[in-house]
Amino acid sequence: MAEAYERFRPGYPVQLFDMVMEYAAQPVRTALEIGAGTGKATRLFARQGVTVTATEPSGAMLAELRKHVPANVRTMQAAFEDLQPGERYGLVYAAAALHWTNPQNRWSRMAALLEPGGVFASFGGPIQLADPAVKEAVRVARSQFLASDEVPSPDGTPPENDMQWPGTELQRSRWFTDIQQSVIERRLVLSARDYIGHLSTISAYLVLPALEREHVFSRIMQVLPETVELAADITVHIARRHYER
After folding, report:
1. What mean pLDDT do residues 202-213 have?
2. What's this model's pTM, rounded to 2 decimal places?
3. What number is the average pLDDT over the span 85-107?
4. I want to staple 197 with a disulfide (CB 3.0 to 4.6 A). Which of 3, 8, 110, 174 is the partner?
5. For residue 114, what are the CA distances in angstroms to 78, 214, 241?
6. Strand, helix or coil at 116?
7. What pLDDT is attached to residue 244?
8. Is 112 in contact with 245 (CB distance < 8 Å)?
9. Taken in order 124, 166, 77, 118, is the CA torsion positive or negative?
10. What is the mean pLDDT of the chain?
11. Would you say residue 245 has pLDDT above 60?
């Protein structure tokens, strides 16, 4: 699974780094990453000179991460809930991983890891087929096994709302201020086989029994063109820790 994540999950553009740094409005020298996976986002920040501490509960994911990151990356095998207050960072961020964290005391825990005035960032988003006809064909192909392969909003925010999760939670939190939501538009083109590889890293398919998963991938493969275009916009939420808290 770690190798599949590394091969099939897309990386992040420098535009994302620039957006976070512009918001910070001061040099960010240290960062803590929550749920680093194989280090797609780790590389973005570390290669720009930030000293990143990458935390990840999976030993296999961390082993894969260490193959690809520069020397200024420290690693720690730990879930977010296992992190103890102590060292504070100028930036704490999560790349398509925040929904795995426990909502209980999420933001007080997050604030405890940040310097006063430090920045929290969360970014990610669904990767969807751009062609409506192909998207519908895939929906029909998987329908016997899955009604949907999307991750629902963790707090039930409707998709039509202007502010999406986790911005909605941040707005209600006493620990954070100046919540901003932005979108980086992105389009990707994958071969049909690589698209199936990407689906193999999506939780909706991972929870299926192995035989069902093989059947649904086979059915989807049959309706795909040779290459597929994907809408892979990155939704970015950024907030600042209150100075006075």
Report:
1. 95
2. 0.95
3. 96
4. 8
5. 17, 44, 7
6. strand
7. 59
8. no
9. positive
10. 96
11. no
Question: Could you give phi then psi for residue 196, rounded to 5 degrees?
Answer: -60, -40
**Tokens linked to 224:** 């795909």
User: Mind spelling out the 3-state secondary structure of 3-46?
Assistant: HHHHHHCCCCCHHHHHHHHHHHCCCCCEEEEECCCCCHHHHHHH
Element (H, E) at 229: strand 227-231
Beta strands in 41-186 (DSSP E): 51-55, 73-76, 89-95, 114-124, 128-129, 176-184
- Copy the structure tokens of residue 85: 């207050």
Q: Find the helix or strand (DSSP H, E) in which 240 lies.
A: strand 234-241
Q: Are 20 and 238 in contact (CB under 8 A)?
A: yes
For residue 88, give both structure tokens.
Answer: 């504070």
Contact yes or no for 120/92 (Cβ under 8 A):
yes
Residue 43 has pLDDT above 50, yes or no: yes
